[in-house]
Structure prediction request, 317 residues.
Amino acid sequence: MRRKTPRPPSPLPQRHGVDPVRVRLPVEGPWATVREHLVARLSGAGPGVVDGMLDAGLIVRADGRAVAPDAPYEPGMFVWFHRELPDEVPVPFPLEVVYRDAHIVVADKPHFLATTPRGSHVTETALARLRRELDIPALSAAHRLDRLTAGLVLFTVRPEERGAYQTLFRDRQVRKEYEAVAPYDPSLALPRTVRSRIVKERGVLAAREVEGEPNAVTDLELSDHRERDGLGRYRLVPGTGQTHQLRVHMNALGVPILGDPLYPEVAAPGPAGDFRRPLQLLARRLEFTDPVTGVEHRFRSARALAAWSSYEEWAER
Prediction:
């Protein structure tokens, strides 16, 4: 069995709560220099970007020394650098910490804030914010919520313990309960368990249901409804974790979640900084047995879905 090359620690500090990029050079390849490989690998960065970083000494080795522009290619070598941070509109909502101990942090994430750095959302993410605000550089996410979904997210404090908490989610040993606001349909028989096969194709915004063995299971019930505005408040308990699962299942039942820009139809993206009508989906509860301490944890989000609190005000935004 081939042994994995150990990953050396980063020689660069975090910047604004964001880790530097780590690149491992392939064991085999046609490149004569480190530069040739990086130019090919980072082609999306634009012409001249890699050369500029090398000239400025911004790409470094494991010992912190800058990689020379003409450095020969070294199979298996690790290099690090900070990518250019995108311009981001600050998400103007608080990120509340509901629990913290030596092992975990549980945060109550607002709508529009991504969980971890990805794409155009880097510093304006829950992870980067918490690393800065709590001064815990090693903080990591044990799971993720969609950027548009609000509610409870679990983070781990110690890197060596992260796997134990991730295993809870992988083995479905965490009870997650969501709340959603959507149209009320008196003909829809509830409660029910929805089972279907959901696929999410790379580069396609919306997921879809297809024929085949179910890979997505959701228990769904109506918690309350209002005749005057035709709205229902729904309780959703996912048994699996497919991308957009709750949104897809609600839409398939004919009651798409209010504020959803993808279901039933993909809407044109709004202007940057448009936070007026958030998706009315909330990760309300999170319950699990701590794999490190054995403590039974039960957390509840204190957030309220705006459309249920005042639909008229939400609809006029």
